[in-house]
Amino acid sequence: MSNSITYDIESYINKNVHVLPQTNQLRALHTIIRNRHVAREDFVFYSSRIIRLLIETGLNLLPFEPLDVKTPVGNTYNGLRFATKLCGVPIIRAGESMESELRAVCPSIRIGKILIQRDKVTKLPHYYYSNLPEDIHKRHILMLEPMLATGGSAKAAIQLLLDKGAQEDKIIFINFLTVPEGIHAVCSKYPKIKIVTSSIEEKLNKNAFMVPGIGDFGDRYFGTVN
């Protein structure tokens, strides 16, 4: 992979790509989990706090419809409710790190699974397994995957969802970190996809790791890294 290529992603920001507000608190959380010496329990705890923010932001992109309710004092509150069926689809294995936070917010949500893994040598995605709700074509989908690097695995997962009947404009990709390369790869092929992320990194290095990055999110979260 050439590191000399630059990608203009400005047209995707706030249209396809929704970045969490870069508050001091978010930067402080990132500082903890990006530290190569942080304890695993702290990595999991503070990553989960950011994941919750990502999921709440993703839910805010869903359609709503009016719903009036009576309050305890007898008045009417002109409220809202979700206007769609919802499904979470983590990409195994790293995407499962985000599933518990989604279930905490939406306890009864349907969950599908896709197993697509990137070969550590060739960097190419390989499909192994999927199990999705039969009515996936009727649902808005929160696709869960922490890392959007080259975009190969994400594109393979999106195409699988589309082949199963999902609608492109109903897929919201909940993502922890990304880079311009990944944004360009996904949004140029699937222009109706929405991506929610906590940070857009500088670039990919020659090993397809993000810079400054966080390392292998799945290994660090599940404790399978030295």
Automatic annotation (TrEMBL):
> What keywords would UniProt list here?
Glycosyltransferase, Transferase
Name the Gene3D superfamilies for this protein. 3.40.50.2020
Keyword match Transferase = yes
Q: Name the Enzyme Commission number(s) assigned to this protein.
A: 2.4.2.9
Q: Where is the Phosphoribosyltransferase domain?
A: 21-224
Q: Name one Pfam family in it.
A: UPRTase
Report a single Gene Ontology molecular function: uracil phosphoribosyltransferase activity
CDD domains attached here?
A: PRTases_typeI (cd06223)
* Record's protein name: Uracil phosphoribosyltransferase
**Species per Swiss-Prot/TrEMBL record:** Zooshikella harenae
Biological classification of the source: Bacteria, Pseudomonadati, Pseudomonadota, Gammaproteobacteria, Oceanospirillales
